[in-house]
Amino acid sequence: MNSTQWTPFQPVSASITRGGLPVGALNGVRSRRIVAVCLDLILVSILSLVLWTGLLVLTFGLSLLLLPPLFPFVAFFYNGLSVSGPRMATFGMRAADLEMRLEGSGGRVPFINAAVHAVLFYVSWMFPPVFLLSLVTADKRCLHDILSGVIFVRRI
Question: pTM for this structure?
Fold first, then answer.
């Protein structure tokens, strides 16, 4: 990885670390991710409730049997559309001063990678010890980050 791959968020005089990231790009990423997840879970829950209520009213209650799996769909599209957008972050990530980038090039994450990352993240909740991997990886990535080919960095 050369330093030209990370130019969108590094000043000209920034020192580059061993992995090609600017110095300070990974400072506090773990704790900021926890805050971002909490904020995003609240927002996705509110969006799901509003959509669920709206669909319930529009169908006069006939869609009650189809609506329970609404939260995963909202989370899938919320993460996929917001991370692949111009700000490269969900609302929670922006509030925590984080952004998601592709691992190798540092570029914008495509929709499919962001959506797969969301699915793998929610599957990881069934196996909580998987989150401990971020304690031993040098770039503070969890297993779902590695599998989807993304990295979280601070906005610098």
Answer: 0.76
